[in-house]
Amino acid sequence: QVQLVESGGGLVQPGSSLRLSCAASGRTLSTYTMGWFRQAPGKEREFVAYIRWSDLLTYVSNSVKGRFTVSSENAKNTVFLQMDRQKPEDTAVYYCAQKTSGNRAVATARSDDYDNWGQGTQVTVSS
Questions:
Q1: Beta 121-125 vs 10-12: how paired, if at all?
Q2: Which among 30, 82, 88, 114 is placed 20 to 30 Å from 101, CA to CA?
Q3: pLDDT per residue over 3-48, tens digit each?
Q4: What residues contact residue 77 under an 8 Å CB cut-off, 6+ apart?
């Protein structure tokens, strides 16, 4: 069993930065890809970024490209989401997710392809 615990959320002003962390415990050796998703009130869950564990290949969605960066500290089974120049529309609950099945070489932005999820952390961008 794997546990994913996000931290680092909070209330920030537009233009500010936050760094989210997601620490994985349990069967972490089976990690293929770690992803970040977010869900705003009244909206569907949205892909934000992923990092492929084997070679640290990263990808971020167009909505956050140039502002958000995903990284990891594999030895500590931790993934980060650095969020810079935040906008009010970044307000959401942010979730990290772990992909442990399917093709290890295929990183994905589809939430259905992820096997384990954290509880989420709230990020609010408001003046």
A1: parallel
A2: 82
A3: 999 999 999 999 999 999 999 988 767 889 999 999 999 999 999 9
A4: 23, 24, 25, 28, 31
Q: How far apart are CA 30 and CA 9, in angstroms?
A: 27
Task: Specify the pairing of strand 18-26 against strand 2-7.
Answer: antiparallel
Tokens at 90, concatenated: 């970044």
Q: Is 66 left (phi over 0), alpha (psi -120 to 50) or beta?
A: left
Nearest residue to 82 via CA among 43, 49, 57: 49
CA dist 8 and 108 (Å) reads 24
> Which tokens belong to 32?
């293929």
